[in-house]
Amino acid sequence: MWRNVSFVERIELDFSGNLFNHAIVLGDVDNDQGHELVVGNTDGELAIFKGTSRSPWKRCSGLGMITCIGVGDVFNKGKNVLVVLTAEGWCNIFDIKSEPATDTTKDPDTVGENITPSFTQHLPANGKVLLIEDVDGDGKVELTVAYSDRVVRCFRWSTVQDPETEIISDNLIQTQKWQLAGQISSLTVNFTEDGHPELLVAQPGGDYVTMTFKQGSEIDLSGNEGYNEEVLKSDQRANQTVSTEILGGISKQRTKQPGTYYAICTLDGNLLLVEKKQILWSLQVDHQLFSLKKLDVTGNGKEEVVCCSWDGQTYIVNHNRAVVRYQFQENVTAFTAGLYGGDNNPSFVYATYNNKIYIYNNIQLPQVESTNLIEVMERRENTQELLEKIGLQDPHPSQLRDLYHWLLYGWRGYT
Question: What is the dihedral of CA 116, 118, 124, 130, to 10 degrees?
Answer without folding.
Answer: -90
